[in-house]
């Protein structure tokens, strides 16, 4: 396992995956930084506003980013015609484990940085709302689960087609449908896995003052059922991707 | 002599199509073995089965004296270098970095990289990205990867494919010298008999998944000897000499076509033709094409 991960890290040289992982937190920082909360009311509700908006931003960005990360992991093997060589040097299980570990590691790094940026924004912009540790951790876990599920779905597509285009197209279309589903009844959004960030969110608009254009966000119950389904879906896609690699003729 | 590769009734079936049909290969240690056959004959499929890349429908493979099984596969392949179909290499990495990945996966120290780069003449270009390499350089890098760790066996599938004449020449010299330089046994496939003749000592010929011939190259050359054409200044003077030697020649103006002849007989004939004033201007010995050899081998088999 260690050898396989080491090999994947060696292959990652000059592939600039870290830049992709950094892109999402940077976008979050720039977007949230551009909408600095002003006034005591907004600052007192700022973490809630951020954690309400973050899933929407994730639904736009992350299906595409996951397609990028997954397709790049396998595309270099296709372009370099390396699979036949690799299968004489390591088992298919070890190759898959290396890719799954590196991919999941990159996703984890990205989510960690994204959540860290949220804390940083709170400090820099002087949020007065008490830091909502529980919802914050829940949002991080939900983002990670959906990301991993999307990552393995895109890796599966890449393994099926040996071409990054289908994975990227599905990522882009998935982002659009996912965002669209956020504005549909909750039942509809359950059928659109790319947009699961939104139904998994634990914040909702509890009051909107039309006259002052002030929005007050409130907590809603954690959606454990959908989170568990997301984890199961991620496991199913992981198994399907592994079967695909195991049975693929070279 | 010890056998490095041995297959017993090796078969591969893809639906109704039999790609490899009861193939029996015997590759002796320390030789360059040419595995020859036209495109689609089953060469690559056989080689992939030797490396455990695809599972045989039936039959057995023994590599380096051991049965190839799921358990023994990777330990055996660590003593084997291979280049199957197209050369492998991460295009965004340099040759050195590519070789480091392979060396680490093989468990070979990095100091061996310099040695293999020297053998394939890529030392000067070790720090260039593989994406900037020509096909010939990529093929040589593929060979370098195969050579890492001084394997006892090299399996090379059409390594001269797509190379320019200079590259082919260089690759031939490299492979021909491999047993002496590295002690490795080489199994190399090609669809060109002429190319193989310059590199190999033993040959196996495969067509439609069947082995048609296996043995020393010299024995195959007996089958590959074709007609001889002579261009003469005066064919009429040549006719009695040819008749006297029991030869039936097909004459077309100044060109006379003779059946395949032993070298000594041919030399004697040319001397006689020259002496009688027939004027031998040109002598062209023809080598049978692979297809013609197949026909000759299969007709012999049928007889």
UniProtKB/TrEMBL annotation, chain A:
Pfam families according to UniProt: ABC2_membrane_4 (PF12730)
TM ranges: 18-40, 46-69, 100-124, 136-161, 168-191, 222-242
Signal peptide: none
Keyword Membrane assigned: yes
Domain of life: Bacteria
Keywords (A to Z) from UniProt: Membrane, Transmembrane, Transmembrane helix
UniProt name for this protein: ABC-2 type transport system permease protein
Species of provenance: Gemmiger formicilis
Lineage: Bacteria, Bacillati, Bacillota, Clostridia, Eubacteriales
Automatic annotation (TrEMBL), chain B:
InterPro entries: AAA+_ATPase (IPR003593), ABC_transporter-like_ATP-bd (IPR003439), ABC_transporter-like_CS (IPR017871), P-loop_NTPase (IPR027417)
The keyword Transport belongs to this UniProt entry's keyword annotation: yes
Gene3D superfamilies in the record: P-loop containing nucleotide triphosphate hydrolases (3.40.50.300)
Domain ABC transporter per the UniProt entry, residue ranges: 5-233
Annotated GO MF terms: ATP binding; ATP hydrolysis activity
Pfam families: ABC_tran (PF00005)
Family designation: Belongs to the ABC transporter superfamily.
UniProt name for this protein: ABC-2 type transport system ATP-binding protein
Organism: Gemmiger formicilis
């Amino acid at each position: 396992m260690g050898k396989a991960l080491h090999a994947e890290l060696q292959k990652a040289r000059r592939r600039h995956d870290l830049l992709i992982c950094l892109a999402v937190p940077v976008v979050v920082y720039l977007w949230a930084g551009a909408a600095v909360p002003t006034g005591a009311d907004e600052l007192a509700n700022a973490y809630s506003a951020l954690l309400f908006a973050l899933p929407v931003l994730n639904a736009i960005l992350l299906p595409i980013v996951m397609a990028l990360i997954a397709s790049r992991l396998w595309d270099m093997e296709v372009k370099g015609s390396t699979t036949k060589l690799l299968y004489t040097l390591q088992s298919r299980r070890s190759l898959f484990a290396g890719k799954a570990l590196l991919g999941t590691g990159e996703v984890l790094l990205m989510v960690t940085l994204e959540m860290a940026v949220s804390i940083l924004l709170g400090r820099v912009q002087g949020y007065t709302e008490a830091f909502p540790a529980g919802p914050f951790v829940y949002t991080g876990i939900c983002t990670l689960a959906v990301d991993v599920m999307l990552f393995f779905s895109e890796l599966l597509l890449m393994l099926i087609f040996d071409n990054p285009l289908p994975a990227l197209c599905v990522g882009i279309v998935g982002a659009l449908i996912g965002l669209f589903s956020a504005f549909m009844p909750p039942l509809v959004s359950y059928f659109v896995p790319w947009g699961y960030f939104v139904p998994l969110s634990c914040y909702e608009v509890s009051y909107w003052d039309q006259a002052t254009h002030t929005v007050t966000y409130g907590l809603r119950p954690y959606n454990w059922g959908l989170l568990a389904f997301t984890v199961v879906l991620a496991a199913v896609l992981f198994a399907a991707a592994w079967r695909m690699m195991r049975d693929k003729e070279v | 002599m010890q056998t490095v590769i041995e297959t017993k009734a090796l078969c591969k079936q893809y639906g109704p199509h039999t790609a490899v049909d009861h193939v029996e290969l015997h590759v002796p240690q320390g030789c360059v073995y040419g595995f020859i056959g036209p495109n689609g004959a089953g060469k690559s499929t056989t080689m992939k089965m030797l490396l455990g890349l695809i599972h045989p429908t039936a039959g057995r493979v023994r590599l380096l004296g051991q049965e190839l099984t799921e358990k023994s596969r990777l330990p055996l392949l660590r003593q084997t270098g291979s280049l199957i179909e197209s050369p492998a290499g991460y295009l965004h990495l340099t040759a050195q970095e590519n070789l480091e990945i392979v060396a680490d996966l093989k468990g070979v120290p990095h100091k061996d990289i310099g040695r293999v780069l020297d053998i394939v003449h890529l030392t000067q270009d070790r720090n260039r990205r593989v994406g900037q390499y020509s096909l010939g350089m990529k093929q040589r890098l593929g060979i370098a990867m195969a050579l890492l760790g001084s394997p006892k066996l090299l399996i090379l599938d059409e390594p001269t494919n797509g190379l320019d004449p200079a590259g082919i020449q260089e690759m031939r010299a490299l492979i021909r010298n491999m047993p002496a330089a590295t002690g490795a046994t080489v199994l190399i496939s090609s669809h060109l008999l002429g190319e193989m003749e310059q590199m190999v000592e033993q040959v196996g010929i495969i067509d439609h998944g069947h082995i048609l011939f296996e043995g020393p190259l010299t024995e195959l050359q007996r089958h590959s000897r074709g007609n001889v054409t002579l261009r003469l200044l005066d064919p009429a003077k040549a006719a009695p000499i040819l008749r006297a030697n029991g030869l039936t020649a097909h004459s077309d103006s100044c060109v006379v076509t003779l059946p395949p002849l032993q070298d000594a007989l041919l030399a004697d004939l040319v001397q006689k033709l020259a002496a009688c004033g027939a004027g031998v201007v040109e002598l062209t010995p023809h080598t049978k094409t692979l297809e013609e050899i197949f026909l000759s081998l299969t007709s012999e088999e049928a007889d």
